[in-house]
Write a structure and sequence with these properties.
The chain has 170 residues and is mainly alpha-helical. 51% of the residues lie in helices and 12% in strands. Strands 1-2-3 form a three-stranded parallel β-sheet.
Length: 170
């Protein structure tokens, strides 16, 4: 789990700060690591920070919402939490993470593909996602228009730029 001072935590903190400065509300899973880094950066920049937490995660691993969250939205199950995260946002910026992050990314992409949710920016950040997508995307299995639903970037500054551009274009 990335800790304060680690590269991934500080990149996440930078992202949160940039999002808050651009006027966006930040919504994360609300817990530790990268989620905390984004929450902290946004909070320190005076932004609104929503943490989406759930009873099921806390029964599995005793955690509470990180101290940088200004508003908590709680769900009983992981399924409800993930669906809320994907459905209740205007754009999705995907930072490095674990299985939960991968599943949220895939679900958001799949929902956008089939029209379950309106098309919204899906922006994976960093080399981890660029390598993952390069290994995964094969035009035999994924149509060009579905590949285009995802805009991969290297930095938080690029992510916020893409988000702003897409939000104002819609």
């Amino acid at each position: 789990m990335p800790q304060p001072g680690s590269a991934d935590y500080e990149v996440a903190r930078d992202l949160g700060q940039r999002l808050a400065q651009a006027g966006f509300t930040v919504q994360t899973g609300g817990y530790v690591g990268v989620m905390e880094g984004v929450s902290r950066g946004a909070n320190e920049a005076g932004g609104r920070v929503i943490g989406v937490t759930c009873d099921q995660i806390e029964a599995f691993r005793p955690l509470k919402a990180n101290r940088w969250v200004t508003e908590e939205v709680r769900h009983p199950t992981l399924r409800e939490r993930v669906l809320y995260l994907v459905d209740h946002c205007d754009g999705i910026i995907v930072m490095p993470g674990g299985i939960g992050t991968l599943s949220e990314f895939a679900l958001a992409w799949s929902f956008a593909q089939v029209g379950e949710v309106p098309i919204k920016p899906i922006i994976p950040v960093g080399g981890l996602w660029q390598r993952t997508l390069a290994a995964y995307i094969d035009p035999i299995y994924i149509r060009t228009q579905d590949i285009a639903l995802v805009t991969s970037v290297r930095t938080p500054a690029e992510a916020v730029g893409v988000l702003r551009e897409r939000m104002y274009r819609q």
